[in-house]
Amino acid sequence: MNRTTAGAASMAAQWPAHYVAFDLLRLNGTDPDLTAQPYTARRAALEQLFTDHALPPPWTLCPSTTDPATATEWLEWSTVGMEGLVLKNLRGTYRPAARAWRKYRAAHTTDAIIGAVSRSLTDPATVLLGRYDPTGRLRYTGRSTVLPRPLATTLPARLRPAGEEHPWKGQTFSAAWGTKTALTVVLVVPELVVEVRADVSRDSAGRWRHPVKLVRLRDDLAPADVPLFGDDTTTSLA
């Protein structure tokens, strides 16, 4: 959330920020450099810092565990928007400009409507997905990863090019998240429902922040059966 605008004070009141600490490299310029220490030592120093100073909110200590059962329970927090878990090597040292950790994203399967394809209708690269909002307007909710070749070959026969009445007519789509490069798309009649695997990350408009993976076509569902735009209802945890 950008808090550098004129309404920063009201935004901060509505969405208070917390500083979540998960690692400690150095407290100040005179303290020993901890980057060469294993993560277990850095974590112990971080926990001691919170204990010694009884740091109150907005300072928050990120929870950490080596117990698989506890980690599994934490994945249930995905229902309130937590992306997943970060995995760190307990013996690993801090390496600047290098990713020495892995992220396990919590993903769910859910349904959406194909509203467009990228590249061309005869040889689609990805599908652009939508859901209807409570007013009956089809809203763009995200794009798929690159389609596997068998699906890209058979999907065109299931799609029909849309006319001027398509609700996305004149709308532009970014080629990648965070860029302004326009994506080449072909609008299709929004009648085909698909099941996708998506993580819980959303942008400020309520769209999936990361590309979703198309799991299967849902010939048993009609567009009216798909959850409404902004509805996080899901069918299963991946």
Summarize the structure.
By secondary structure, the protein is an alpha+beta fold.
Q: Which helices and strands occur, and which strands form pairs?
A:
Blueprint: H1 8-14, E1 19-21, H2 39-53, E2 59-61, H3 68-75, E3 84-88, E4 101-105, E5 107-118, E6 127-132, E7 138-143, H4 149-154, E8 185-187, E9 193-199, E10 213-217, E11 236-237
Parallel strand pairs: 1-2
Antiparallel strand pairs: 3-4, 5-6, 5-8, 5-9, 5-11, 6-7, 9-10
Description:
It is a single chain. The protein has 238 residues and is of the alpha+beta class. It is elongated and about 65 Å long. It starts with 7 loop residues before the first helix and ends with a strand. The strands form 3 sheets. Strands 5, 6, 7, 8, 9, 10 and 11 form a 7-stranded antiparallel beta sheet that branches. It has a two-stranded parallel sheet with strand order 1-2. Strands 3-4 form a two-stranded antiparallel sheet. It folds into 2 domains: 8-105, D-amino Acid Aminotransferase, Chain A, domain 1; 107-237, Nucleic acid-binding proteins (OB fold (Dihydrolipoamide Acetyltransferase, E2P), Beta Barrel), CATH 2.40.50. It has helices spanning 8-14, 39-53, 68-75, 149-154; strands spanning 19-21, 59-61, 84-88, 101-105, 107-118, 127-132, 138-143, 185-187, 193-199, 213-217, 236-237. The model is unreliable at 233-238 (pLDDT under 50). It is 15% helix and 24% strand.
